[in-house]
Each structure stands twice: as structure tokens, then as C-alpha cells.
Amino acid sequence: MKKPKLPILLFVFFFFEIGNAQNIFDTNIEKEYFVTLKELCEALLKQQNLDKNSLEFGGLLDPENDIYYTRAAEALYPFTVMYQYTNDKKYLRAAIDLGNWLITKQEKTGEWIENPWEWTGTTADQLLMMAAAYPELKKHLSKEEKNNWETSMRAAGMYLVEKMKPDFASINYVPTSSGTMAMLWKNVLQEDIFKEKAKKLAWQTIAKMDEDQFIHGEAARTHGVKYGVDLSYQMDMSLWGLTLYARFTGDKKVEDYVRKSLSKVIHFVYPNGIINGSWGARSYKWTGYGTKTADGSQILFSLFANENSAYQTAAFRNLEYLRTAIKDGLVGYGRDVWAFGSKTGKPNLYPTFARAKNLALALEYGNHQNGETKAIPADQGDWVKYFPTIKVATLRKGDWMATVSSYDYHDYTGWGKDKYRHFPRGGAMLNLWLKDFGMLTTASQTQYVRGETIHMPPIEDSLRSLTPRIEFRNKTGYFTNLYDTKSHIFIDERSDVIQIKTSGELSDKEFLPGGVAYKYDYIIKDQSLTKKITIRYHDRKPNVQIIEPIVLNEGVKVIQIDNKAVRITSPNSNVLFKINEGNVTLEVGKDKDKYWFPFPGLYTYPIVMKITTPAEGFKEEISFTYSVEK
């Protein structure tokens, strides 16, 4: 493990007295990682049981669920790294006590149960942290403790050798376990069985990677096989797990697969650090900074930062956005909604120790660069990237960045119940970013569903989706483009404009069409974005409306000017929303209190256009434009 460059007394002087922490780090990004890691670890320390007479001595109490959450023991590695960088023995003691506590919770067959559930796949994550920390901690363990730790790690390793495979878990566990097996083999137990299992798991993951380098297997099973792509899990877990395996074992071919994937997924990193995983099959936990129950992307970007410093830029931008979701050292759901609706007003410890784990890994294994780093793709040029295997396009044009998704994953058998049903699709424009303004629109579940009850708050109110959309309701149900699994994307890219067209049928949550077809035509210029919408009524003529929820960044106001125009003001940029054509009634702010979501943790303000149903004919065309006001 890495050592600080200066003695501890000089460290204290520089960091706490002068605030010039970069003096002990090779690069500024390491200082930034350390600052946030320290904040998270200090909050985690407050949750540790220090009563030596307690059966839970050393464990971390989850403030939301009032349990000693076994997964929280992963904090032992961040504590260890903090000890390495500060020489403060409170971190050393915390790490050892937490590891000893974790060992007492291990099942006889080697696994840990992720309480309060019965899931055991997270054994890979706990073992990874033990194996990463062990080279440092073993110098401070008694002979009995060393024996206990090595026995525990071997038992956990053998459990994963036997159990872990794509048939057992969502795909992110497979590459994570690959990295874990390689770490165990390299750092602790040089037994070939672990190296061999690591290789098998890595290549089983690569086999699930499509031609655009997206990894399938995050959602439901069909005939026992998992399908579904989730960008957040791919970046926050799978790709860096594969890379750790490749680096420990020298498997260059696997590393090249990761390298190709990373060069593509970086196009989903926005200028403000948001990573747009809102379109993924498991986006019910999408937070903007990643996904709530995964570790983070800093370690992934750091592993390749020496090859392209734009990755280091991306890592820092995302870290900055993560910081907006931290309160009192704990990581919440998102930027604006911290822990609303939870039992205690605090989030559970999961995202806090997970992000700490990620930052600790980035500090220890990253290849960081000095000086100014390159811009990320989102910062420069006019481009559009379309990925046909997932039917998602992301683009940067002038002052705008946006993502349009027709991702058509479908849980055919209902294996996941409602979990994988409500991610936005149907040619919707999801996260729309504007220079000097920030996020103008965003995306959420179409219907709020607690896909994992321990991680998602119980909310009694019927929330409205944050995703821009077309919709109608009638006596048979709710219909929207967001449930359309058969839409398509067509792209026309010219020097002065990017044009994206999508079409399909407004459908219900069973993905069944309801008699109204739609077309979206997005026309993106340097300082304007026009949406042309065509509604085709066939068989029936319900009351259709178009909804554009505006993200309430700090200082943003949405003011209706007249029956055709709305001015959206912010401290640094103003936007004029204007209806160009169409027989619609404009409503601004109706039911505004329902336009928020714990994931991605944002509040919005609705602009609603109610289409006047035609007495004759079968088509209505509506057009409106967002224009940057100078």
C-alpha cells in the first residue's frame, strides 16, 4: 500500500494548519479523494460500537434501519487507507475491530448474509476489502487474529469458487468476484484455485458484453439467463473489477475489453459530473453520481488516467457532484433530496461506505497525473454517439448536452416484479444539460416503485415522473411513450444541427399500446432546442398532454409569460420556452409538489401542454423551442 510522502507531523501541519494538503500527495486529485474519504470515514466512525462487552463490538450501526449491517464492514479498508495516510491509530483500531466483528458474522460455509436479507453474493465485496487491507493490517494483528483472518478469507474465497457465476447473481457480482479472487491470490493466499476462478469469472463477464461493449445481465432472468444493461453498475462495479483482475494476473486481453468499453461510456459523463445511467434497467436506484448501492467510478477512471487524462477529469467532476449529496459525512439519494421519507431522516450507511471504498481504491491503485488534465468529450465539440445495441444516443451540440433513449429491455416473465418495468424509454430526451444553467430536464422512474426496500424510502404520495413525456389517461389505464418498448431512433447530423427522430405508440405499464401513436423530432442547434411532436389518433381520441418538468437548480424560477411562453431564469443563464405551433392549453406549476423523486434526488417544476382533441381529423402537430437568452 502507498505511504505518505511526508512524516505525520508535517502532514498535520500542512493539512490542518495551512490547508495545503497537496504537499503530501503526488497529484491534486489524490488530495481531493483524500478530503472526501476523510469526511466519509469520520461519519462512519461515529456509527461504530465501542462497547467491548457488546456482542456487536466493532460493528457499524446503520442509523436508518437500526441494525449492524454486515455490508458496512467493507469500511475496514477505507479505515486502513486513512491510517496509511495519517498514521492516526483510531483508524487502525477501527479497521481491526470491524474486521474481527465481521468474522464473527460469517456462516460456517464461508459466506456472509447481507442482513436484513438472505443474499450472500455480497461476500465478494466483503472479502475484497479484507484482502485489500490485509497486507497492512497483518503487521498489527496478533497471531490468533492473523489465523482468524486468513481462515475467514479462505473460507469466503472457497464459497465464491463454488457459488459465484452468472447463474447465481446479477452480472456486476461476477467481475467484482473476479477482482476479489485475483486480490486474494495476489495479497493473501497464493493458491491457484483462486487465480483460475478469477479468470473464469472475467471471461464469463466478457461473454456478456455486446458489440458496443455494454455488459448485459443486470435485470431479470429468462430461461435462467439474466439480461438487461445498467450503465451505472457497469461503471461503478463491473469494469473496474475486471481491470483489477487483469492487472493482478496480467490478462491483457480482458484489460483491452475494458479499455474499449471505457472509451465509449465516458460519453455519458456530463460537464457537471452527472453520469447518465437514468436509462438503465436498474435505474430505480440512479442518483446522478452513480447508483446508490454500487461503489463508484473514481477507481475505474483512475486505473486508466495515465493513458488519457480526460478520465481523471471525469473522475473529479463526478466527485464534485457526489459532494452535493453529502450531509454530515453521509451520502444521500441525490443532490436535493437527501433522505426524505426514511424512518430516521438519515440514509442507510450503504452509499457512504461504498463510495469510501471506491475512493480508497482510487487512492491506492490509481495512476494519477500531475498538472492540467484533458477535457472530457462533454466539454468540447459537436458530436452525437449512437449505440445501436441499446438504442441510446448521447450528444453535445453548442450549449447543450442530452441523451435520448429507446432502450427496449423487457422483463418478459415478470421475474423482477416491478423493479425493471419503470425505467424511461420510448425516445424520451432524458437528461438535458445547458451551459451556465446546469440540468434543464432530468429523468426518473415512470412510477415510483421501491425495488429494494432497504435502499429506497417508503413514500405514500403518488409522485409524478421527472422525465419529459407524452401521456394520457382513460378508464383502462395510464399510457405514455415511456412504456413504449418498440420505438426507434433515427439520427441526422449536419454541421449546424443535430436532428434525432423517434416514433412509436403510447403504451401502458404492461407495454400494451392504447390507440395513440406519437413522433418526436428533436432539432438541436447551438443555442436552441426544438421538439416537434406529432400525435396520431387511431381508434380513439383521448385527452393527450405533453409534460416538460424543469429542474429546480438553485435560484431557478419558472415564470409563465402568456399562453404560449414561459421564461426560465437562473443566476447565470435564462431560457425562453415558447410554443411555436399546436392547439394546446399551457399550464405551469400544476401539482408541482409531486414533481420530485428520491432518485435521482431532484425537484422539478412542470410545464404542461394539454392538447385540444380534434373534432375532425386524426393528427395534431405541436412544436416548442427552448432558446438561450443572451
UniProtKB/TrEMBL annotation:
Gene3D superfamilies: Chondroitin AC/alginate lyase
Domain annotation Broad-specificity ulvan lyase C-terminal: ranges: 384-624
Recorded superkingdom: Bacteria
Domain Broad-specificity ulvan lyase N-terminal per the UniProt entry, residue ranges: 37-374
UniProt name for this protein: Uncharacterized protein
Source species: Aquimarina celericrescens
